[in-house]
Design goal:
- The chain is an all-alpha fold.
- The protein has one domain.
- Helices cover 74% and strands 0% of the residues.
- Helix 1 packs antiparallel against helix 3, helix 3 runs parallel beside helix 7 and helix 8 runs antiparallel to helix 10.
- The N and C termini lie close together (11 Å).
Amino acid sequence: MPASTIRIHGLDTLRALAVTLVVLHHYVLFVSDAPTFGWVGEVGWVGVDLFFALSGYLIGNQIFAALRSPGGFSLRHFYARRLLRTLPNYWVVLALYFLWPAFRGDAPLLPLWEYATFIQNFALEPGSAFSHSWSLAIEEQFYMLLPAVALLGALFGGSPRLAWVAIALVFLAGMLVRAELWQEMAGQKYKLYFYFKYIYYSSLCRFDELLAGVALALLRNHHPGAWSRLTRHGNLMGLGGLLVCGAAFRGFVDERYAFGITVFGFPLMALGFSMLIVSAVAQGSLLRSLRVPGAAALALWSYAIYLLHKPVCVMAAKWMQAQGYGAEHPLTIAALLALSVITGWLLYKLVETPFMRLRERYVPSNALRPALLSPAPR
């Protein structure tokens, strides 16, 4: 990571928490098929939503800060930086899925062009190979859409008030879409299949947390007074975020596929994660100042770990089973979790790092005139 990049420990902690939750959930779902980690493993899929909220805030902040800076905002630079950040790791793992049959197991692959264009989440069949890339597809769609919309709004003199109205309307649209799809699901024979294919994996149903992060970035860059007042109460926001997230998690554990939680649970979780992000960046807050051992490293490697952990754990679990160690044996759990981190680190070191160096050399910022733009915190 370049020296100019300002890292915030609170955000690193949240990112490390997000990838940990996802790894534990996928271990339960694809390896042990048992309550190995209790309710944490059951609800660990929310780590993806925490990633969404972080991405919305961090990317939104980069865009809004650049638009208001003397250096200006370059759409070409932004896209180049995002693609150099996300594509190299993704293409290496995608190649493993297509060239190494053991890596994908018996799961069917979608056509390559769907993965290449990041539309694999559209009506994604549950059980497909590389199915966890659905969230990457949504993030890439977000990366392509948000800066173009923001730049278009700036060119036409769009006001923050209009942006807030748009955010509110999009939130409402997401709830209405989920409500309509849930009603359709109620008449289906295979309800869970329908839920995942058309609701859980759908871009139209899963942008709540991304949008909440963008709203935070808009508040920070266009309403500095309100942002300052909000961040004065970092510990209170953190406590409130934990309580709101706890309520959302409880709802998803108790009745994940019910109408109420399907429609309102995601906005509730978006609110909770937003409050945690405010706490993570607020000066003097416990979450910002707390340094959790290993969190910074996990945060740095989180993208690589996310890409590799699922197939690596599934393959390694079969080998451990052959040695007489079941999926719930402590040695198997420790070995597979360690392997997830080690392989993620290797991917980060061998693939991601060289391309990040290229990015810092040739596309050092999102600005039209990079020397005039100060580095934004990550």
